[in-house]
Amino acid sequence: MKSVAEYLDSPEQAADRALCLLRDAGGMSAAAVWAQSGGSWRRLACMGDADALPDGAALSAGKRPPAGVSGLALRGGDATLGWLSWRGTAPACLEAVAALLTGYLRYEALRAEQAAARTANETMLEISLLAGECPVLDRLLPRLHRLMQRLMDADNFYIALRDEDCAALHFPFYADRRDPAPPDPDQVFPLAGDQVSLAAWLLRGGAPMVLTGERIEALCAQESLARPAQLPAFWMGAPLRNAADELIGAAVLQRYEDQPPLTSAEQQLFMFAARHVGFALDRVLYHGRLERQVALRTSELEGANARLRAEVAIRKRAEQFQDVLFRIAELSNTSLSLEAFLSGLHRLLGEMVAARNCVVALYDMGRDLISFPYCSDEYAPALKPRKPGKGLIEQVLHSGRPLLLDPYGGMRGMAATQGGMPPKSWLGVPLYCDHELLGVLAVQSYDADVVYTFRDQEVLEFVANHIGAALARVRALEGLQQAYADLEQRVRERTSELDAVNAQLEFDSLHDPLTKLPNRNYFSKALRRAWDAYVDGGERFAVVFIDLDRFKLVNDTLGHLAGDHLLFEAGARIRSCLRHYDFLARLGGDEFAVLMFGMDAVEECEVIARRIVSEFERPVVLAGREVFSTASVGVVLADREHYHKADDLLRDADHAMYCTKQQGRQGYTLFSHQLRIDQADQLALETELRRALEEEGQLVPYYQPFVAAASGELAGFETLVRWQHPQRGLVSPAAFLPIAEESGLITRLDRYMINAACAQLQAWRAEGLAGEDIALHINLSSANFRDPDLVGWIGERIAHYRLPPAMLHLEITESALIDQPQAAATAMQALHGLGVRLALDDFGTGYSALSYLHRYRFDVLKIDQSFVFDLDRKQESVAIVRAILALARALDLEVVAEGVETASQRDKLTEMGCGMLQGYYFAAPAPAWALDWDKLARFKEPGDVA
Ligand code: C2E
Ligand code: CA
Ligand code: CA
Description:
Keywords: Coiled coil. Residues 682-939 form the EAL domain. This protein has 946 residues and is an alpha+beta fold. It has five domains: 4-114; 118-292, 2-Layer Sandwich (Beta-Lactamase); 337-466, Beta-Lactamase (2-Layer Sandwich); 520-671, Reverse transcriptase/Diguanylate cyclase domain (Alpha-Beta Plaits, 2-Layer Sandwich); 685-939, Alpha-Beta Barrel (TIM Barrel). The protein contains 28 helices and 32 strands. α8 (264-334) packs antiparallel against α9 and α14 (551-558) packs antiparallel against α15 (560-576). Residues 841-842, 862, 864, 898 line the site of one calcium ion (CA). One calcium ion binds next to loops.
């Protein structure tokens, strides 16, 4: 078999050789070999009278051969590859020759199949590559057709595609040998409805279809489809799908009767090819869509770009105009003369318009005269004022509208009226201020290349619109110049007068008018300067704060004139204690401050402070009277470690002075680290006191009895506050009352104590311990007088505890009366109205001004313990107590002497006629539960007391 295949070129040659072998063997008169390929039969070779032998088709169809004729099928596997037919007798080698021939035919069939497969594969690949090579449908489709033709007889081949929104069908490629009117590529056909094409029908089903001519006719009738103009013998359609398996169209192949029928292999191959065609078309269509989109976006972008460019140009022009506007405004403000303004304007104009020659004409209606405040021209000389004539300027003035003349229009023949060298182009616009026509702004050109346009007119009008007002302003300004010059002279004269006044004002603003000393303002500045110098390594300094004691009393009792005198005297006395370079100021009221330079140690400060204090020990003679007004002093030494700003020094000097006051006035305090700590501690104490007032039981009322001196009978109690502090233990009022006063908590504390005392009194009365002759004293701070509800509240408490009001005594100190004379008088009046009694506390220590006793109605007077204390030692104190007692008797006041500690004091006071006595000698203050009522009753027997 191998040898046959090698030596034989074709099946014909093989058949020929086979017949030669058979002829040589003898017996056969005629013979022929038939082979089948693609469904048709072909005679490969013959000998003798072979035409009379039946053909392959007849033999394989099983037709009976004529007599004397024999046939042998050449079979390879199941398929009949050919036939051998002969007349005569078969030689012995027939079997072997037939087998050889069969083998050869089989080999040939396989080879043909292989070649077809290779072609098909190559074609598919090319179809796939088509999309890349031809991005346009018009070029791709003819090539596709050629490729299809390579695969099979595809002369009649067309492609149908759905449009993008799947509404219609068109045929971008249509090859048909017979069809007289193939559809136009741009023509669209319906996809649905009556008389649709076969391709549309196929797309509706979405499956491949192979139809014969008869079947087509039946289908068109049944489904009312459009009948093809030329009915084909075979019609084969395959749907085209894209990669996403969506239908995009169909590929169709037709055969007419004169063409070979469709084999099943062709059908398979066509369907297979259609898949590749679908992908290729989809890629090209997608590409086309993309390109269309890109083109669309590009044109959109170009449109936007053009708009943007136009906008930018408009904005630029607007900006340019804006800029010109600013510069005109600036020009009109900075130009000192009209001429300067106009020449500046000309320069500006030159940046936008070809304005080498420029004229400004102004029309004076009153004189009917045109003047030319500005004229810059290459040829024309300066223009003289003239009566209106027939010039171009006059035309603009007359019409009130711009005039543009170019060489082609009205310019010709203009020279005559203008005089001089004729311009080639002229542009003039009216100048308005508001609605008043002021004149004309004109430019002209002698250059044939420079022709003014409407655009230039626009610019000129714009400028003209904005210089009208500026022009008016500059003109007015010029007139003002002279007026200013006159004024300036007068201003110079006045200035020197004013300087003197200012100096006085400056002095006044920094000095106190009464003492002529620097004031607080000046002091603050000096202090800050001293501090800055010190911080920069300059000399150290001290701040001294001085406050006069009892100044208010002097003012109130001796009058303001005396007060002024005292302040003046005080300033002089302080000054006398200082070195000439120390800085003394009156801060206000009775407060003075000193900056003492070159102070390095506390001791140096003390020397001066002491000197100041002692300077005030001498009385001052005021209105013929000797008045003692002592001073309280506080001193702070500048210190970089503890201070960050100058004001804090003054604050601490003030605080130190306040400490002096608290310690009984007249003296000095050096602000120290301890004071700073105390300050912090006092802040903490204030917070704690606030809490104590809100809780029950921390603030405890103590009661100290006082007795009738003559009988020793219990006369009453004074209520004194104690603070049972959870950490600090029992705190005495001296430690926290100043804080309560300063923070304003004192009014709450007093209310607390009044309420507690009233409750206690009610309890005692309920127990029958206190009869109505017992007095209960409660201390009341002056701060309460500011409280308008105080009296009402006390009345309400008295009613609440059902107390006889006369049992309650409120103790008030003299200082309270000095602080708030009017409020105190009103409150005391009201308290009297309630039936409550009033006691003047600490009498003798304060101002002891007798006027108070007259002015306010007191019921009881309490002699201060300092006098009682000195009774045994100082004869002077005996005299004072005696005087107080006489006074009380005269005013009909009861008297309580405080601080009785010894029997001798008791005896002396009793002997002098003091009504009541209070002090440790009888009992120390104690809480209610600790009172020994039995012992209180025994004061009756004086002998028993010890
Ligand atoms: P004050 O009104 O002069 O009260 C008398 C002070 O003398 C009390 O001091 C008392 O304990 C003390 N004392 C009594 N007998 C003697 C004695 O024989 N010798 C000495 N050396 N002292 C004696 P205390 O309780 O420390 O109160 C001090 C000041 O606090 C009171 O002086 C009063 O002004 C004020 N105070 C006390 N409680 C209250 C209160 O509830 N409200 C107000 N606003 N002030 C109060
Ligand atoms: Ca008291
Ligand atoms: Ca007292």
